Amino acid sequence: MAEDEHISAGATDGAVYRVAGSLTITRAATTQRELAELPDPLTIDLSRVERMDTVGAWVIYRTIRDRGAKVVGASRDEVSLLKEVAEFDHPTRVIPEQPGAAHRVMNELGEWVAESGRTLLGLLGFLGATLVGFANVIKRPRRFRINAVVQRFDVVGVRALGIIGLMSFLIGIVIAQQGSVQLAQFGAEVYTINLIGRITARELGTLMTAIMVAGRSGSAFAAQIGTMKITEEIDAMRTIGVSPVEALVIPRMIAAVIMMPLLSFWSMLMTLIGGGMFVWLSLGIPPLTYIQRLQEVIPTTDLLVGLIKAPVFGFIIALAGCFQGMLVQGNSEEVGTRTTIAVVQSIFLVIVLDAVFAVFFSNIGWI
Amino acid sequence: MSTPKHCDPVIEVRGLRNSFGEQVVHEDLDLTVCRGEILGVVGGSGTGKSVLLRSIIGLQTPDSGEIEVLGENMIGREEDEAKSIRRRWGILFQNGALFSTLTVAENVEVPLREYFPYITPPLLDEIASYKIAMGGLPPDAGPKYPSELSGGMVKRAGLARALALDPDLLFLDEPTSGLDPIAAAGFDELISSLQKRLGLTVFLITHDLDSLYAVCDRVAVLADKRVLGVGTIPELLALDHPWIQEYFNGPRGRAAALGHEDIVEHQHS
To answer: Which residues of A touch B (CB under 8 A)?
Structure first.
């Protein structure tokens, strides 16, 4: 690039900066630094510059602008390049103006409160719209989209059997193993069966299934509907006269509400089998004895506790998923954000409701 | 007709073949882009205009063929190689491809920071500012995020980023698609004036007949998996190919030609 440059400080007319070779973006940082070191008044000699690009021109231009430097020896091309960059001298901010820290904290807090309020209201409104949709479908059963519902059954239910079964089986083993180690300290290993049986039926089967369905299907609902919002499919539906709630939301709700108890029951079964395997292989309790004991220790109300919760959880998961999907607008980035929110929201709501159910069932004596 | 005699090739494509599974997109495709020209690339949908662009800039590895950009072979180069070439080109993607988490000004600064980490922040911000102005954006666009911009502004911001490193070579993928006619004409003018001022070589993919007439020195027609012909529009019209005839002599082609009659006349002489 620049083979040499001479910097000389004359006594009378200040410093002279001579550039040789190319004055381009590659040398911008160096040129800038060297110029900054020289005292005013400054003269820049461009007579030996072979190549100059807009960044090089800009470095020279800003020195002229800010320090009143004089330029000598510029060729015609260089002069016109300098003029051109001068023409584009419109300072702009790089990032938006940032308010002070305290202001920002208050701002965020306020926005969070407002957003929470809006979400709650929105969710309520969406629930209402869904109920209206249900009412319409009941009034005119021919508008019920049986194909869509059956397809959702497949996606939400049948295809989840494998993963939920495997997960439950493993959890059964873990509970049996952990439980037996602790209970062995009291010589009460045989109560492992009580532990597995009751916790599975009352809590774990449904809760684990709900979490899996939220991660698998709740997220899918949000992503599918969100993508359809972005590609304007939902707008197209509306203009044709198809209600998106009826076409998209209701089939998903029905699928989630019906599939959740079935999947929960499946999950309980697999957990019990997993626990049974461990009990058999490790504690030497044969399967038949295990089943007999299960029958004795699990009251029917335990199964009911588990299965009553399941459709409610399914409803919550579908509601949160579809609601967040419908909220998507603008860019594809929002689909990701909304999907995450849908999963977090539905799992959170499921656990809150689970606590409410626990208190409720205890109070009505189902213990 | 194909290549002017005094051509200093900036891009050379020889015997390019691209395919996706069974579907062959390019077969034995040759193309030369000369220094300092604006080459328009046209072709029907699915003729592989964007695939050609992606092959040239190294985003797509072709089945076979040779590609040279600014004298360097581009085939089989790894991402971190050929940086000296990447530094000398700017690319405007079809949808702008602005980084959504950065403001417009920060977007323009990305290539500058990547290649020239020693440039001080104040100078960096000033460079970003004048590049934004060069891209034809108002100063208040600098601190905006891409999601706050209109389609035309996104393209201009993309152009500002493509110009960040003072490239010799500019690739534009359908820069005027999705713009209203006034904005499109403004963009054509901007490209044309920047090309003249900065001495750029421009590889322009477009569907816009007005752009072809307004800014392109030569036009390459992509059809039948290869480049059917390269030349000025009158030269192309002399070729008796049905697609070219249909393209330039269809109702839209004629309307665009009418709007630029002087150019066509001039090129005839």
So the answer is: 24-26, 28-30, 32, 53-55, 58-59, 62, 81, 84-85, 88-97, 330-331, 333
Residues of B in contact with A330 (CB under 8 A): 147
pLDDT for the residue B263 = 53
Query: Are residues B134 and A25, on separate chains, in Cβ contact within 8 Å?
Result: no
Q: Tell me, what amino acid is at B241?
A: H
Architecture of the B9-236 domain: 3-Layer(aba) Sandwich (3.40)
Mean pLDDT of chain A: 89
Mean pLDDT for the stretch of residues B85-98: 86
Burial status of residue A276 (CB atoms within 10 A of its CB: 0-12, 13-18, 19 or more): buried
Q: Using N-to-C axis directions, what is the helix angle for A300-327 and A101-139, rounded to 10°? A: 110
What domains sit in chain A, N to C, each tagged with a CATH number? 7-87 (3.30.750.24), 145-363 (no CATH)
* Partners of B14 in the β-ladder: B66
Give the containing element (helix H, strand E) for A349: helix A333-363
| Among chain B residues, CA nearest to A55 | B127
- Quote the Cα angle for A274-A292-A361, to 5°: 75
**B139 vs A contacts (CB less than 8 Å):** 90-92
**Residue that wins the pLDDT comparison between A66 and A341:** A341
Q: Say whether pTM exceeds 0.95.
A: no
CA atoms within 13 A of residue B161's CA, in its CB half-sphere: 27
| pLDDT-wise least confident of A1-5, A31-35, B125-129 | A1-5
**pLDDT one-digit tens code per residue, A24-71:** 888 888 888 888 888 878 888 888 888 888 888 888 888 888 888 888
Spell out which residues of chain A touch residue B140, defining contact as CB-CB under 8 Å: 92
Higher pLDDT, B256 or B267: B256
Q: Which residue has the tokens 């072809």?
A: B212
Residue A72 in 3-state DSSP? strand
In Å, how far is A113's CA from the nearest CA of chain B?
24
Distance from CA of B13 to the nearest CA of A (A): 28
Residue A300 burial by Cβ neighbours in a 10 Å radius (0-12, 13-18, 19+): exposed
